[in-house]
Design a protein that fits this description.
The chain is of the alpha/beta class and 295 residues long. It is 27% helix and 31% strand. It has 9 helices and 14 strands. Helix 5 links the parallel strand 5 and strand 6.
Length: 295
């Protein structure tokens, strides 16, 4: 990088993360360049790892956290400040607009909540929801400079309590929580990792998704459009009731079918199953049909 000043590091980092994500988004780029990542990580040294190759190392160099790395927030619980390029892709797909309301579920210490708040300026609002009390307390402190973000300690399955434009979920689940879908405003967007649980990376450690994809759901006048953005790996949620082993086996099989996930175009929600669905449960499903045909 041409300069090592914090401002220059953030600006170069923002450009690089959007390029890694394969997106062009001046609003998101400015937001990522304006929020100091180190303010959400605790005191150095920081433990970082590449999300593609999980090799951990310790660093106190600011330049090392302005890269596409995970930064450990709580090693025992498997909580990280996640891949910036992955979140760049997610936030770009959600397309936050000034004045909108958003709920960030699984917010950790609030770094990506702050970036979203910057995109929603000047009059938007973000609820940063975190189930872990210690992490929620850290988020409240870290998010002090962003008065349009409200830190909330609670179960993400119970949010939001009123209609919102955006629901952004940062842990893996095997179905969307009812409120995530029901509380979307017209043209509202939900992005969450849909997948199946795997074993812990180490004995007694946290559980992660075995196979998952970022699913973007949009409320339209004719139903819910849906599409997978990319494969992802997230810590598995303990906050939401899981489906049974049969459901997990069927979803895993659907995700393993070559290219099948890319055919998804709609979410069936609280209506009876329809023929030809990519994945089907009694009260919801994912279909290759567009919303006007699926619901």
């Amino acid at each position: 990088m041409p300069s090592s000043t914090p401002k220059a590091l953030r600006e170069a980092y923002a450009r690089t993360m959007l390029a890694e994500a394969g997106v062009t988004d001046p609003v998101l780029e400015r937001a990522m360049a304006s929020v100091p990542r180190e303010a959400f990580l605790g005191d150095p040294p920081w433990q970082i790892s590449g999300w593609r190759a999980n090799l951990a190392t310790e660093t106190s160099a600011l330049r090392d956290i302005y890269a596409d790395v995970l930064v450990t927030l709580d090693a025992e619980k498997g909580l990280n400040n996640g891949s910036p390029s992955l979140h760049a892709a997610g936030l770009h797909a959600l397309a936050p607009r000034p004045g909108e309301t958003a709920v960030h579920i699984g917010a950790g210490t609030g770094y990506y909540s702050a970036i979203m708040a910057e995109m929603l300026r000047p009059s938007g609002h973000v609820s940063a929801v975190e189930v872990d009390p210690g992490m929620a307390a850290r988020a409240r402190q870290c998010l002090g400079p962003w008065p349009t973000v409200e830190p909330v300690c609670g179960n993400g399955a119970s949010e939001p309590h009123e209609p919102v434009d955006i629901v952004y979920v940062n842990f893996a689940v095997d179905r969307p929580a009812d409120r995530w879908v029901d509380m979307l405003k017209p043209a509202g967007r939900l992005l969450f990792p849909l997948g199946v649980p795997g074993g812990p990376a180490r004995e007694g450690g946290p559980q992660y998704s075995a196979r998952a994809g970022y699913l973007l759901v949009t409320r339209t006048p004719k139903g819910f459009a849906a599409r997978f953005l990319q494969a992802v790996a997230f810590v598995w949620s303990e906050a939401i009731a899981q489906s049974d082993a049969d459901s997990h086996a069927r979803l895993y099989h659907a995700m393993r079918r070559g290219g099948g996930a890319l055919s998804v175009r709609s979410l069936r929600w609280k209506t009876p199953p329809r023929p030809g669905e990519w994945y089907s449960e009694p009260d919801w499903g994912l279909s290759p049909d567009p919303p006007d045909m699926a619901d």
